[in-house]
């Protein structure tokens, strides 16, 4: 009888694991993909692009731009406000970057001198 109890516990643990994996996959499937700037891509006019859009944690932003002229840096609030990437900031430079949003406000700037100050920055709030 004691052996049957352990087998039941192993079955329940395995079933719980499968349920967790299925729930995680369902959550990933619900993620939306947004191209920053829509057809215009990541540019100097991107700062108002977020207006009227709703974002969730797990959604993906696609930054499309000329990689010889721009980049994208994920920064904190101070970096966004001051248009500077702090040490250790993740900088993307492929011209077709995919970034998954974390819960809360996600900040992005172009670190090419003068670009952020000219409007190449966005703040995205993900629920």
Show the helix and strand layout.
Blueprint: H1 2-29, E1 33-35, E2 60-64, E3 72-75, H2 77-82, E4 90-92, E5 96-100, E6 104-109, E7 121-126
Parallel strand pairs: 1-2
Antiparallel strand pairs: 2-5, 3-4, 3-6, 6-7
GO molecular function: electron transfer activity; metal ion binding
Pfam families: Cu_bind_like (PF02298)
Keywords: Copper, Disulfide bond, Metal-binding, Signal
Structural description of this entry:
Residues 32-127 form the Phytocyanin domain. Helices cover 27% and strands 25% of the residues. It is built from two helices and seven strands, in the order αβββαββββ. The chain has two domains: 1-30; 32-126, Immunoglobulin-like, CATH 2.60.40.420. The strands form two sheets. The chain has a four-stranded antiparallel sheet with strand order 4-3-6-7. A three-stranded mixed sheet has the order 1-2-5, with no helix packed on it. The protein has 127 residues and is α+β, with helices and mostly antiparallel strands. The protein has helices spanning 2-29, 77-82, and strands at 33-35, 60-64, 72-75, 90-92, 96-100, 104-109, 121-126.
Brief write-up:
This is Plantacyanin. This protein has 127 residues and is of the alpha+beta class. Helix content is 27%, strand content 25%.
List keywords for this structure.
three-stranded mixed β-sheet; Immunoglobulin-like; elongated; four-stranded antiparallel β-sheet; 7 strands; single chain; 127 residues; alpha+beta
Q: Level of helix content? A: 25-40%
Task: Compute the number of structural domains.
Answer: 2
Relevant CATH superfamily of the largest domain? Cupredoxins -  blue copper proteins
Order of helices and strands: HEEEHEEEE
CATH architecture of the largest domain: Sandwich
What are the low-pLDDT stretches, counting only 5+ consecutive residues below 50? none
Label the structural class.
alpha+beta
Strand fraction band? 25-35%
CATH class of the largest domain: Mainly Beta
Radius of gyration: 20 Å
Distance between the termini: 49 Å
Shape: elongated
DSSP helical segment count: 2
Structure summary, number of beta strands: 7
The name CATH uses for the topology of the largest domain is: Immunoglobulin-like
Enumerate the strands of the largest sheet in spatial order, edge to edge or round the barrel.
Answer: 4-3-6-7
Mean pLDDT across every amino acid position = 88
Largest sheet: 4 strands, antiparallel
């Amino acid at each position: 009888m004691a052996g049957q109890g352990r087998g039941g516990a192993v079955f329940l643990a395995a079933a719980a694991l499968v349920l967790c994996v299925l729930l995680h996959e369902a959550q990933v499937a619900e993620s939306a993909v947004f191209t920053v700037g829509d057809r215009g891509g990541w540019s100097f006019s991107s700062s108002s692009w977020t207006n009227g859009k709703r974002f969730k944690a797990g959604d993906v932003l696609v930054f499309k731009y000329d990689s010889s002229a721009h980049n994208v840096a994920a920064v904190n609030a101070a970096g966004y406000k001051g248009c500077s990437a702090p040490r250790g900031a993740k900088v993307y430079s492929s011209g077709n970057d995919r970034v998954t949003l974390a819960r809360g406000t996600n900040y992005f700037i172009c670190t090419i001198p003068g670009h952020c100050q000219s409007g190449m920055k966005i703040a995205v709030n993900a629920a």
